[in-house]
Amino acid sequence: MHHGYYPKDPVQAQQSEDIVLGSSTSLGKIAAIVFTPDQAAKAGMIEDVFTNILPKYLKAIDSHFTAHKFLVSDELSWADFYLGGNLYLNCAKNPMIYAPERWAELLDQFPNF
Fold this sequence. Notes:
Layout: H1 10-34, H2 39-61, H3 64-67, H4 78-92, H5 100-109
Helix pairs in contact: 1-2, 1-4
């Protein structure tokens, strides 16, 4: 809010909140994998993230990737920073993340992301 990245329009503000909340939920599941010592449990969690959680989330927000220059409008918002930094850069494009081939497949599946 203080730096001008929170949308003034209430609809855009709500869309930003929804995008960040959905991303936060997904990121919690993604991070849990890193801290799970049981390899069988980890494999199941990875499968769930890539077959259920991320496809469902990215499908829900896919229209935001093409409707405007940025996620909720033609102006940069905090949702762009949050989603771009946390999910795209830290996970999808991170060469040191687990299951890099699954991240690449996900990006192929959602090219607008």
